[in-house]
Amino acid sequence: MAAAMMAGRPVRIVVIGAGIVGRVCALRLRQTGADVTLLDSGEHTPASWGNAGHIAAEYVTPFADARILPGVPRTLFPRGPIVLDWRHPVMLGTWFARYLYACRPSQFRAASVVLRDLMARALPEWQDLAAELGRPDLLDTTGTYKLWERPGPGMATCLRGDYGSVVTQAVPDAERARFASQLSVPVAGAVHFQGTAQMRDLRQVLDTVMEGFVRAGGQVMRGRARSIAHQGGRPTVWTDDGPLEADQVLVACGIGSAAVLRRQKLRVPLMAERGYHLEWDHGGRWTLPNIVFENRNVVVTRFGARLRATSIAEFTRADAPLQPRRWEWLERHVSELGLPVASPFSRWAGSRPSLPDYMPALGPVPDAPGVFAAYGHQHLGLTLAAVTARILTAQMVTPAQAGEVSPAALRPGRFGG
What we know:
23 strands, alpha/beta, single chain, six-stranded mixed beta sheet
């Protein structure tokens, strides 16, 4: 690709945020010849570090879905993983009012069309990127499994579902018996999702993308972005260490994006939908694939010699104190499932950046020349990182030729100013 130029020199771009979305965007932008600086706050609490590592191409409908609402009371903590932090009633009330608005049939249908297109591109983009980095082995394309412990309509409903490019298949009895032999719970049913993928090692993925960015000539700067101002019609990122001038700025710092954009005339109604995980050594005694335990809303993933159990959707402020009861809840499920444990648990929690309509904000920030958004990926940051990078690179560097225009469902200004 021809070098991205401005006034006879490479375009200067600052990418704010070194989670998986920020890293992949920085790499793709640098590959165009732009002069790219990745601003890394050094915090290892974004969802990139703590999720299940799943390329969830099957999630082709947004979570802002009125059909979900009747079942919410049954999933409230401690019966289920949903936690509403009522210490902040105004914040919750405002966000959920917008959520209900997004659940309207017309808005839900429009968002579903857009999300389905993103998901169809998600895995191919990751496969292309992994191959370019010389690490196709980062991806395990075996697919994932959903398991039910009790008989019921869940499995049949799952098999009838429309998952876009992902195909579902009932797990044969022999394989289901193998699952049951390694668990302390019955396996009433299981479904294999083909066309999804799993990262074999999340830390390795993050490091490989960063190494590729640096090898391509990108610069990494440690520091925290505080705000963005405009001087002479161009954006300046104000950090703890002073100003950082640029031609373009990409805000990709997850839950921190709202604070960075506070000077812009833009509503950024991000909720810190906090997730928790436990990780431990399995002692070589886990040979099953990655499993979603549907009756428990718990995902169990193997990363080499380690197992990780993830769950919880805690709707709260990003700076709210962590709640040990969430990890204790996970520990109980690990014990009841009979998962092999050969080491103490390590604990992690991080904030998924969720917008009320459960769609990311991708594209130019209105009334802020040169400022672009890539935030609000909620549970799908890892899944959508590679396709997000492709879209933002086209919009920022070659907008005249690319044809990558964000639909209304993705525009950062859709919540008003």
